[in-house]
Amino acid sequence: NAGVTQTPKFRVLKTGQSMTLLCAQDMNHEYMYWYRQDPGMGLRLIHYSVGEGTTAKGEVPDGYNVSRLKKQNFLLGLESAAPSQTSVYFCASSYDRATDTQYFGPGTRLTVL
Amino acid sequence: EDQVTQSPEALRLQEGESSSLNCSYTVSGLRGLFWYRQDPGKGPEFLFTLYSAGEEKEKERLKATLTKKESFLHITAPKPEDSATYLCAVPNQAGTALIFGKGTTLSVSS
User: What pLDDT is stored for residue A99 in this prediction?
Assistant: First the structure.
């Protein structure tokens, strides 16, 4: 099992550009999450999904959109990137509720110039 | 407001020098406290889950304990390979997400 995978690993964008980060899990987990991690701020939840076709806002959702068209995939989109979105993005999944153990991907380091 | 606070922010130890990391939380109705290890440039790796006061779990040189308001991660005779950032997290009151502390960065020198 690969667990949770993320693509790409690194990306540099110019302000105003758009991009999509892909998260895939092969553990048949219902819940999936997108976090961002910034120095001194810890991990903060952007959006999450409780199952295929569902999404919900987390703590810091502004400037991001998500989609969960397939159970195994969770996409995070930036429509118009801003320097404040420079961060490391982590995807995670858990079996069937948020109080289950979350398993994390390796992260995507995004720089917005 | 649900909060998780970890201390110290950074800890430097000599190899073999035991110590403890602290995680305090304010969420009511605790439904689990999670400890993760994060190496530089990698995603958090699950270590332990504790569910009730008095519970303890061990893995190699690590032992996690839980009280009603805080958890401790005890590191016994650490080795340089234990150097990492240790994160703790608790579910929010709604049970929809984990709230993470900012972590303790542990450095163990030989």
Answer: 82
